[in-house]
């Protein structure tokens, strides 16, 4: 992309992979675990327009070098020769990582499809973007590298439009608005995030669709794609998502919680929960296919 042309390879990767230190990324570059257009480059290589960078961290490659195909019922919404659109269930991890070598969406994808893109490395075939494990909804999978590059370009330039549906606790006063609060990883718990001036720019547009006694149904249109963005933003303004164990109370949604005079200490554990998963669903994606045609799909 034009805005990153001339940027050092290692500096760019640090900005894209905040989970890893600059020294770790530099060691990957020196050990040929980072390729630019299929070639080894130095850490200070200046990026050029349309460079394709392939990163395969050595420790992850060795851990998952044998990706195991697994039978999996995939809810396929749309499929052609270039892409697949699926409705991911809550509780399904997208790709293998530390502690998750099997049972991920990728294990199901490699069993189901003979062709998947490999621009995101050998343990993430077809994966252009992610959803949290406990978030359900629409995901686009790339079958070819051409489709992957086209989609990744649109995600990078924030041209993909996303709509999420959620249930939040609290009584909203504003029915529409925008939350513009930077988000950073928590130092004490690197698996969770917080609003912080030191964080990355994060923007979420919201629209309250329906108000109930204790909670609301809300649509979210994130302009940026930070990890846990909607969940963190909702916690920051006092409307945490229902059943959010990281940024809310994490309690299941029981019928007794919705009645007048409810007190948190009184809910019945013997009740069958109405909902016992994060109340967040990726509802819609709008993007452009390789022929320039706008595609709108819903889950």
Q: Largest sheet at a glance? A: 9 strands, mixed
**Helix-strand sequence:** HHEEEHEEHEHEEEEEEHEE
The rounded distance between the terminal residues' Cα atoms is: 30 Å
Principal-axes shape call: globular
What is the assembly state of the chains in this entry?
single chain
Q: Look at the structure and give the mean pLDDT.
A: 88
* Estimated helix fraction: 10-25%
Number of separate strands: 14
Uncertain segments are none
Relative strand content: 25-35%
Number of helices: 6
User: How large is the radius of gyration?
Assistant: 20 Å
Report on this structure.
It is a single chain. This protein is 17% helix and 25% strand. The protein contains six helices and 14 strands. The radius of gyration is 20 Å and the shape is globular.
Question: What keywords describe this structure?
Answer:
about 300 residues; alpha+beta; nine-stranded mixed β-sheet
């Amino acid at each position: 992309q034009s805005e990153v042309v001339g940027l050092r390879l290692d500096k760019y990767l640090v900005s894209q992979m905040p989970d890893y230190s600059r020294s770790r990324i530099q060691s990957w570059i020196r050990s040929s675990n980072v390729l630019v257009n299929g070639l080894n480059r130095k850490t200070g290589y200046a990026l050029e327009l349309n460079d394709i960078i392939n990163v395969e961290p050595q420790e992850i490659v060795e851990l998952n070098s044998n990706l195991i195909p697994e039978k999996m019922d995939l809810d396929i919404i749309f499929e052609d020769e270039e892409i697949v659109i699926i409705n991911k269930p809550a509780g399904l991890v997208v790709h293998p990582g530390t502690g998750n070598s099997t049972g991920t969406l990728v294990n199901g994808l490699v069993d189901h499809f003979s062709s998947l893109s490999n621009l995101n490395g050998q343990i993430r075939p077809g994966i252009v973007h992610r959803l949290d494990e406990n978030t359900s909804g629409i995901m686009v999978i790339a079958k070819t590298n051409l489709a992957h590059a086209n989609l990744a370009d649109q995600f990078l330039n924030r041209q993909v439009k996303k709509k999420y549906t959620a249930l939040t606790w609290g009584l909203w006063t504003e029915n529409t608005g925008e939350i513009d609060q930077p988000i950073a990883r928590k130092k004490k718990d690197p698996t969770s995030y917080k609003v912080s001036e030191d964080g990355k720019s994060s923007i979420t547009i919201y629209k309250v669709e329906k108000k109930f006694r204790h909670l609301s149904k809300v649509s979210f249109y994130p302009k940026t794609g930070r990890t846990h963005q909607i969940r963190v933003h909702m916690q920051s303004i006092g409307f945490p998502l229902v059943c959010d164990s990281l940024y809310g109370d994490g309690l299941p949604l029981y019928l007794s919680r919705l009645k007048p005079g409810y007190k948190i200490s009184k809910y019945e554990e013997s009740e069958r929960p109405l909902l016992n998963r994060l109340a967040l669903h990726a509802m819609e994606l709008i993007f452009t296919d390789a022929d320039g045609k706008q595609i709108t799909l819903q889950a």
